[in-house]
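Sequence in, structure out. Go.
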Amino acid sequence: MATSTVKAGTTTKARKVERKRATGEVVMRKSTETSVINFADVYRLGPTERIEIIKEGVPAGEVVKLAKTIGRPKERLFKVLGLPRATVDRKVRAHQRLSVEQGERVVGFSKLVGQVQVMVEQSGDPSGFDPAKWVADWLDRPLPALGGRCPADYMDTAEGQELVSSLLAKMQSGAYA
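Output:
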């Protein structure tokens, strides 16, 4: 079975990754390394590339960077994503990675911000628009399309994140205003 040393890091770049074959032979291949803070990059990745990032483990420190980027206290982001504060704080201090389930929620949040960023870029001039802060504000607004609930109430599950993403797509198309 091949084991990979691919890591979700802090930049987007092509790099070589060592893989071991069952024989123990080391093989080099190229991979893409993407930070969850590179929102549009995460959004544009294919599902298999996002899954690879999730399975390799998102560095816990990325959640703290994400909270700063969206302009919210990390505790608020932890709550929205259903991340246990003590666990994430411990993993940040130990420079560890999040579990697959936790990483999936973080990558999903990043993908959502990337979706908004790409929508705005496609719609016109994005200068002066901060998609991360806009999403953070929008998530806390009660919406009629959600029965008066806030999108943030759905961000702690993959299915909820898909619901919120589809609501954004409907807004872009004009199906929901």
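Check: The longest helix spans residues 100-123. The beta strands are 3-4, 13-20, 26-33.
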